[in-house]
Predict the structure of RWD-domain-containing protein.
Amino acid sequence: MSAASEVLSEEFEVLESIYPTELTRVSDTEALISVEPEDGTPHQSELILQLRLNYPETYPESLPDLSLEVVDGELEEVEEQRLLEGMRSVGEENLGMAMTFTLVSFLRDQVASILTARAELLEHEAMEKERLELEAEEARTKGTPVTVESFKQWKQRFDRQVEIARAREEEERLKGLSPKEREEFKKVAARFTGRQLFERNRELATSDSTLVEEGTVSVDISQYERTAAEEQAEHDEDGIHLSDSD
């Protein structure tokens, strides 16, 4: 048995006592070691790796060939490469000495760091989401500050909406009238200002709703609106003439 083989054999005996369940000897020069973070590492997901070590004949003067396999959880390719590069760097610092325990310890620490960073990221995202929700709620409850310009814009939109609603209301009212009644309604409407017509329509609407609630039949008074001249003309046609002597 070569000196290198004797060093590796003795190292395996030590490793088996340290990792009784984690270590699997594949051959005299190859081993598998399961690696997971220490208990108490803050994480919300599992990450268990299996480290494969192939020892060259020149070990420990040369680095073992290292590879990783994911047993549980997820590991991004960039994370895997960072772990392997880190272990090789640590191995370079320990050339000439049994280094397996040092490599495994480094890997375990790095796995814990990865899980801690993931947990912190999730916590940060949750806090940021909560902050944005609070800001949105505050903005909703506070409302938009009113300026002279914003009030003018709102007033223009409001007046326009009122005009549209008024036009629709008048159109609906005219649909139920005869041609003669429509003309009379237009004449009456022309004598009111826009605000007066709006107030009048609102009063009529209130009056109508009151009548409906009381069970009274609603009557369109426009059907009975006549000027004094029209009434006099009808009396003349009927041939009715009254004098003081009568």
Remarks:
- The longest strand covers residues 65-72.
- Strands lie at 23-27, 30-35, 48-54, 65-72.
- The chain has two domains: 3-119, 148-229.
